[in-house]
Structures are given as structure tokens and as C-alpha cells.
Structures
1.
Amino acid sequence: MPPIIQIRGLTKRFGTLTAVDHLDLEVAKGEIFGLVGPDGAGKTTTLRMLCGLMDPSEGSALVAGHDASKESQAVKDQIGYMAQRFGLYQDLTVEENMVFYADLFDITGQTRDDLTAQLLRMTRMEPFRTRQAGRLSGGMKQKLALMCTLLHRPQILFLDEPTNGVDPVSRRDFWAILYQLLKDGITIFMTTAYLDEAERCNRVGLMHKGKLIRCSTPEVMKAETGTSTLEGAFIKTIHEVEGVARS
Ligand SMILES: Nc1ncnc2c1ncn2[C@@H]1O[C@H](COP(=O)(O)OP(=O)(O)O)[C@@H](O)[C@H]1O
Ligand SMILES: [Mg+2]
């Protein structure tokens, strides 16, 4: 089976800044891939290009069999994108937010009711159906955003720092949902600044100044760099590419 995401030389320039620099990467169906890097590394820009929301300056990305730039609508139909600041309506309830997003995707009637009920059950958000989004905890807000992203049953889920600022218990909850989605065959491409979270991905890509400086399974990454943590592997890799002498 061909990879569900195929990225070739993907590049984005903003004036003189190269935010994403000749990215090559493939992601297999059913995989959870984690793109890790500090602020400004180019993670969000990469996701936006993969989701057909921004054209690359150079290179291409095939996502679910379609060119993300030339066939962006076909890509959008197959994917769910949860932005770093997902747009929830704070004064609408959980259920009303879901109805709003269902309408956007033209999901109506019994299908909408069934999907909404199923998602509320999966995320254990049923008790909060009638609570205003603005009154939810950070973790519950992220669950609601995830539900809205899943309403049109995407094949691939793109999550931009989905657990940023979420407490540890809610983060564990959120991960339980991600594992459930993987079991159902969804592919997940996420970004995170948390290296303990990256550890849970099948494969991890380290991004630094627009470049993918290392990409493999967490185990291989640690073995290759002779470190016991991904944090150590990341620091060592940055030192290598920056030509800093190792202490
Ligand atoms: N629309 C834009 N115009 C100009 N510069 C941008 C734009 N979007 C992102 N950048 C710059 O590109 C770089 C990468 O940003 P981003 O992809 O948001 O990184 P990350 O998500 O890893 O924090 C940063 O230096 C950022 O300031
Ligand atoms: Mg970002």
C-alpha cells in the first residue's frame, strides 16, 4: 500500500525566511506520526500546507492520494485539521458547537445525531452536552475541538499541539481517545512540544529551523544518539547539525 502522506521537497518561504526547508517524509496509513520542535521550527506551516490551507513555495505533498495544493478540496474532504487555536464558539454549548461544525460539513438529520452521540460517548463528554464551551476546562475544550474535527469522519487527523496547556490527567484522557481512533484505522499526524508525548508516537520527526533533522521511531532515535530520552536525542541532534562540540 502506498504511504497515505508523501511529502517531497516541501518548502515554504516568507520573504527571506525559509519556514519549511525541503521536507521529505512519508507516513503510512494507520500510523501516528509526531512532528517535534521548538516554537518557530516550522511545524504549523508544514501542517497548513499538508491540509491544503497554504501553497508551498516549492515541492509537493500527496495526502490521501491528492495533491494538497492542486486538489485542496479533495484533501480537505479526507482530513480533519485541529488548529493550534481551534475556533470554538465560547457562548455556544458543547452540542451547539458540534451542530455548527456538522452544518459546515453538510452533515444533517439522523447521521448528525448518531455521530454526535457516538463522539460524546467516546470522549465521555455526554454529561457536559449543555455546558457552554467557554465554561469548559482546557482539556474538555480540546476534546470538544477534536469532536468537531472528527464529525465528517476523516481518514487522516492533523493535530497542531493538541494538548498544549492541558493538565496531565486530561492529556492522558486525550491520548486514550487518540489510541481508540488509531484502532479504528485513522492516521494521525500531530505536532507537539512535549517530548514525553512524542515518545508515544510510532515515529517522530525532529524539526529545527525548517528542516527535518532526524526522523525514526523513538527507540531507534535514542539508540542512534546514544541517549536514554528523546530530549537527549533532540539536543544531541541539534548540536550535531549546528556543529557544536559535544561536551
Ligand atoms: N504567515 C506568515 N508570514 C510570515 N512569517 C510566518 C508566517 N507564518 C509563520 N511564519 C514564520 O515562519 C516560522 C515558522 O513558524 P511556524 O510554522 O508557526 O512554527 P511552529 O509551529 O513550529 O512554532 C516562524 O519564524 C514564523 O514567524
Ligand atoms: Mg505552531
Note: The two ends are 44 Å apart (CA to CA).
2.
Amino acid sequence: MLTTSCDDGDLKPQSNSSETGRRISMQVNFNALKAWPQNYMLTLAAFGADQETPLVSKQFAQPEKESDIQTLELSGLPDDAQTIQIALLTKGRKLIYSFYTHTLDDGDEDVMLRAENLSLASYGRIQQQVFNQYCTACHGAGDRAAGSLYLTADKSHAMLVNATAHAAITNKKRVEPAMPSQSFLIEILEEDLLNYNHTDVLPHDELVTLLKTWISNGANND
Ligand code: HEC
């Protein structure tokens, strides 16, 4: 039996023995749980040629502790599935960011995958979910970078971490590793600074929490 429906959250493992599709099981534990998504869905998802919307997906439950390992299964996979991903999706099931990708071989029958200590506050996620979506339009994607700040993928980390802010109203670093409260990046997004007006740029507080968690964990480039 092929599963073609949208089955986030409550897909019961298929026990039908005449089932033809492959079965994938994934064991994973997540780190940086403060950055657990609320307005988005963290899923195990199978993608075909369309890299934007998965063929099937199933949502991870929020664990209590970083050491909690959970196992999710996708069974009855459609034949056109090409990759299995730990994927962050919008509620409309569009891919925002992929934490992990496994490419399926034709020979793969039932596959058991494992990913340990996946950080939810990875820089790749921040670049795609925050900077690319809400910042680069003004900060570097076109022919200008407001405030001389480039937040494009090739430049953003070096422009932020340990870099002194230009703004006359602060002597903070843009990002001070391990110290979100000393980082101008957080201040500009949270406080209504005169002439800066960045408090409405992000649609959800959890994206600021994601940035704070990344800074608290050392502001690494991975
Ligand atoms: C609509 C355009 C626009 C968008 C979108 C925007 N910014 Fe800005 N940003 C500006 C402008 C303009 C300045 C410079 C203000 C000035 O220098 O007077 C600025 C300045 C900044 C600064 C201060 C840089 C410094 O060293 O002084 C930071 C940090 C910053 N933006 C971060 C962000 C982040 C993060 C996002 C996305 C969440 C974002 N901005 C989205 C227009 C924008």
C-alpha cells in the first residue's frame, strides 16, 4: 500500500504485510532544545524530485532532555522518494532547512538511520531561516548592504561575530560569543532603537530565541 496522504503527527506505522514501499526508521537526539520550533514543524520527511514539498512527512515530538533519543518511522514510502531528510517545514509543508539528508539507493530496502547530537541552533539554519528570509533583501543580496552589513551566506558570520557595530548608539559587538545580552544583533531586534526600527522584522519571537541560543552556545560557524 502506498501512502500518499499528508500524515504529519499521527501516522500509525503501517502493519499491512502486502505493503510494497520501503520502511525507513530514524533514530535521533537533538541538542540546543531552546531552539525547538513552535510555529514550524520539525519532521522526518521523504522528498522526490520536488525539493520544496515532501511526499510524506511525520513530525518529531519535543523531547524533554537533550539525551532523549527518539525513533520515527516512515513506512510504505512512495517509489519516487529520493531522499530522507530531517526537515524543518512551514505549516504549509514547505522546506525551510534540512538538518540531515540521506540519499536513497535503488537497493535500499528497509533502512535504519541514526543521527546523534543534531544542534537545533546550527548556523546553517540561522542563515536560511532568518537571514535569507528576512534580512538579505536590505543587507547584501541586491546591490546594497544597509549599514554596510552583509548578511548573505558567504559573509554573514565574519560580519557579525566579534565585529564592532557601526551604530553610534552602542559600543557592543554585533555578536559577542556566549553573551546574547552583550550582542547588538539581539538588541536591535528586541529594543525599539531610535531610527533603527528592526523590532517588527521577524514574525516570531522564537527566531530571536534561535539567535540567542546560537550565541549562548558559542556563535560557531556550523
Ligand atoms: C528594510 C530594510 C532592512 C531589513 C529588512 C533589515 N535591516 Fe538591518 N538595517 C537596515 C538599515 C537601513 C540599517 C542601518 C541603519 C543606520 O545605519 O542608520 C540597518 C542596520 C542593522 C544593524 C546594525 C549594523 C551596525 O553595525 O550598525 C544590524 C545588526 C542589523 N541591521 C541587523 C538586521 C537583521 C538581523 C535583519 C533581519 C532579521 C535586518 N537587519 C533586516 C535595514 C534593514
Note: The first helix runs from residue 123 to 134.
